[in-house]
Amino acid sequence: MNPTLRAHPVHRRSGVLAPLITVAALAMLPVGLGACSGDETTAPTTVAEQRLDRRRAEVMAQVLLRNHEATGARFQLAARSFDSEGTISLSGVVNWSDLHGRVLVSGVSDDLGEVTEMAWTSQLIGEYRPGLEAVLQGIGHQPGTYLIRPVDQSRRLDQLVGIVTGLASTTADNPQLILQNPGAAYLRSDTLRDRSVDVVRYSERSIFWIDTETGMMLRFEGSDSSGRFPVVVDIIEWQSDPVELPPVAEVPEALRR
Amino acid sequence: MRRVPAFAIAILVTAALNLGCGGDDPPLTLNVPSDHPNIQAAVDAARPGDLILIAPGTYHESVEVATERIVLRGTDRNQVILDGQHTRDNGIAVAANGVAVENMTITGYRQNGLLFSGAYAAEERGAYPGYGQDYGAGDLVIDGYRASYVTAYNNGTYGLYAFAARNGIFENSYASGHPDSGFYVGQCRPCNVVLRNLVAERNAIGYYGTNASGDVWVVESVFHRNRLGITPNSQDAERLAPQSDTWVVGNLVTDNNEPDTPEIPMGFFGGGIAVGAGTSNKILNNRVEGHLGAGILVIPLDDRDPEDNEIRGNLLANNRVDLVAQLLGASPGTNCFAANTFATSDPANIESLLPCGGGLQPWQPSGTYQPPTPPPTADYRQIPAPAPQPQMPDALTAPALPATGTPTFPDPTLIGVPSR
Description:
The complex is a heterodimer of chains A (257) and B (420).
Chain A: H1 17-27, E1 50-51, H2 54-70, E2 72-80, E3 87-95, E4 100-108, E5 117-120, E6 124-128, H3 133-138, E7 146-150, H4 156-165, H5 175-179, E8 185-192, E9 195-203, E10 206-211, E11 217-222, E12 231-238, E13 248-250
Parallel strand pairs in A: 7-13
Antiparallel strand pairs in A: 1-8, 2-3, 2-12, 3-4, 4-5, 5-6, 6-7, 8-9, 9-10, 10-11, 11-12
Chain B: H1 6-20, E1 29-32, H2 39-45, E2 51-54, E3 57-59, E4 63-65, E5 71-74, E6 80-83, E7 92-94, E8 99-107, E9 112-117, H3 118-125, E10 142-153, E11 158-163, E12 165-171, E13 174-176, E14 181-186, E15 193-196, E16 199-201, E17 205-210, E18 216-219, E19 222-224, E20 228-233, E21 246-249, E22 252-254, E23 271-276, E24 282-284, E25 287-289, E26 294-299, E27 310-312, E28 315-317, E29 321-325, E30 336-338, E31 345-346, H4 350-353
Parallel strand pairs in B: 1-2, 2-5, 3-6, 4-7, 5-8, 6-8, 7-9, 8-10, 9-11, 10-12, 10-13, 11-14, 12-15, 13-16, 14-17, 15-18, 16-19, 17-20, 18-21, 19-22, 20-23, 21-24, 22-25, 23-26, 24-27, 25-28, 26-29, 27-30, 29-31
């Protein structure tokens, strides 16, 4: 019997913005990867960086909670790869209530291997490699079967998944503490996909583009401490549907890296 | 008789009018909703010293207070209800000195029920921490605050919260259903705050005092059926660590193992009083009973050891372990235990190993105590509403009493172990 991604326990993330930074530190993160497709920004209406005020701190404190309350989203992610000068793009869906997700993978990077699609739960990563399709069908698996393996934070793709799933929290952050974060700042007002946004920095390595009308996060930018591995996550659409997970198979020993 | 020029008369009249506007007028009572349609409108119209008297009703608003020394009072604690409908952030956010909030219920806010914020007050004054400065010290504080006869339940973070605030009182108030804590005093030195006659139940933590130092008094209150009762503590997530000088005296701390409570991410469960890396705290004459973990714990937090804490005269019963001391370092430090009534401790013979008044015995770090596994969290919005709470006496007629000056601190020698 094929194992299923659904059968594995879910660990609900309960952190706030600070834990997000931990995830970011593990992985990498952002600034300046110009972007995800469909991105349309206008010239910023203000440019000078300013001290974060309480209004914006209160909005920022809720941003990951609002993601959690939205349940899930369709998103696009663009990132610098870890072991090369290449780039990685993920396009798909995430559900923050059960931490499931599924994406198409593209880019130019040694980190990709032959992976063209991924799905995940909180504990397992599933990968689809077209080159193995015939092999898997030959041993009885149905077409489109993903190979599953435990989450491995040393892999760039898994780190990127960790960032996406970390963009939600069951609790709000504390605006009082955000106000005194080193690096917290209001960067500018801008427009993203026809929405008016405030671009605010939580810390030196995490920037949120927040819809000024709804308080929802439309974009997250992060980077590691070196700034060499930026990531940009664009929220394209909110959705609460469960993620449709693919058929899966254990990774045959012969295929393990 | 010499004539006074007309222009001179005009100047005198103008001066008199200016005097009249300068704050010498007697305090006014602003009624809501008869004078002002909502609480915020009354707050905006108030001058220092005024009383805002709020009639029974449910008020769907988030009130921000930037005027010093005003008093907001409900005429009926259980029928004057601020309801955030889980869409608004704070019930009442105070960013000014000397404000008092009395006799009302605050529920359903995504952040806090009642917030006194020194950071917000500093912003109102255009003051910000410079290099080496922190909110909560020096002038970067709210100076003077009070909450009396306030009920807060099912708000998203704290019930009653004082951040970077000095010279305060929380009294005769109730808090339940908060996923962080019912009562919180954080990041202040000196805090000069008295918390007395409070009831905290079904919160993640009853009283949480991170980096709250200097004459913090938690006395004669009830902490019941939370996940953790009381915790003065030091954490690096806030400034002004390490915490010091909290007095926890004469409290009833029972059964803080309630599974139907919201969980705090750090996962505390089953403890009565936990001094987490605090220093120079006095835990005196409390009754601490019925905990699946431990009654009173003196433990490390954030890789920092507790120091100079005195645990004396407490009555402990029906806890899995009554008294616990754990230290990261090889030295026993100067925490001490004396004159407690208890059956079990970790390490055993804790009052001999860590006696008050010197005479420390050779210390073998103990690592045997393990806290219980926390049960899954409950949705804070679904915790049952509390029963009606006692009214403020003479709410309709008592004069406004802004929160000014340093509060009178309790005399710990007059506070005994409470009865159940």
